[in-house]
Design brief:
By secondary structure, the chain is mostly beta strands. The protein has two helices and 34 strands. It has a 25-stranded parallel sheet that branches. Strands 6-10-14-17-20 form a five-stranded parallel sheet. A two-stranded antiparallel ribbon has the order 2-3. Strand 2 and strand 3 form a beta hairpin.
Length: about 475
Amino acid sequence: MKLAHDNLDLGRCPTLIAMSIPSVVGTALIFVAAARAQDTRTVVEPKIPPTCSVLRASLTSVEGHNLADADEAKLDTERIQRAIDGCKPGQAVELKADGAHDAFLSGPLALRPGITLLVAAKTILFASRNPRDYDLSAGSCGIVNESGHGCKPLIGGDHVANAAVMGDGVIDGRGWAKLTGQNFTWWDLAEKARAGGNQNNPRLIVLSHCDNFTLYRIRLRNSPNFHVYYGNGNGFTAWGVIINTPKSARNSDGIDPGSSTNVTITRCYIHTGDDNVVVKASGHASHMTIAHNHFYTGHGISIGSETNGGADTIRVSDLSIDGADNGIRIKSNSGRGGLVRDVVYDDICIRETKNPIVMESDYAHYGHAGDKIPTFTGIVLRNVRVLSGGKITLDGYDARHRLGMQFDNVYLDPPLASKVSATYADFTLGPGPVNFQPGGNDVTVTGTGGNGAPNSCKDKFVPMPVE
């Protein structure tokens, strides 16, 4: 499975070079190898468009990670938004360092159709720490309550087609920093919500009904909540994005495409405190390609827990998962379940991960009551290797709603270091080797693993790019 310009080595080329391709705005993005269903667009490396406006930084970061207290009220929101509003489609508003001044400070920004927000190299866009800047209603952000969803995102788009966020600079949500006038951080709020309720924390980027949206080469870090949510759109590309947030940051998902079609996530490095990538399917989610990526701490590559809209035609390939809580995971339950089918994982290497493979049809986090029963079927693991052991869970929901999986060259290395449990499942082994025998309550196994070498993980695991 290849992308156009697939000669780049992800491990050796953390900074990607734009190719000579027509403007990313409106570019149709289909796989060259379209024999297997996935993203139906031709995916080529995006190109940074010409600038309509260059804004120079007037603030100076403290060692690249914070601002001086005296600068915390010097918001750049208005001038950035004015530049975005005044730009023509097919062009970019560039945020650029000016000598020692390398930082911008902003509250919520609204993207516009066809406009790119470009953060230049050695430039940082910091999110405001003042929850009042993000309020959807008076006092709704920066608290824990039952309803949640009380904050605007730092960067938002609603029915904004052909827009983008690009550049070799940084967008920093400062989830670790204390809120203005408070003695707690955004991440403290997330931890407080474990006891009940929902934290009202801003997400870094939220895109709704934004067809043909592109994230390119941008570095995202320390989001108070999800880093990127893309929902109800047709055409989303994340290429060469670097997300770096601590494992301890609760609910700090990396990239979440939801209820959308034609999605490609490629050449990304994601280190976070929750799902590295998760496909959410409260509405139908399909034709997604997740290829040539490296994941570190987090909850791995997930589908769910919402699957009631159905999820299908998803391809995950050339992926390393290193030091995560979960590896390959599909999760749902009777409160939000539906059909997940035609999902293929190919050329995956997993190590130092507690739960390398998790098929969880009765995900307890949201309770067990409801009539939306999940079914996972047509799930194929091909050329998958698990190093360092861990717990493997392969559970269907019940005898009628069974898990259906094929294992083709799936190798546990060493096999005795992995604990495999299964229920209500039908497994097919082969034609490649399989060095374990799944079994459990109401489990059937057909086929036998063939001969062959396990998937090579040589050079698969690489360090996070250095900032």
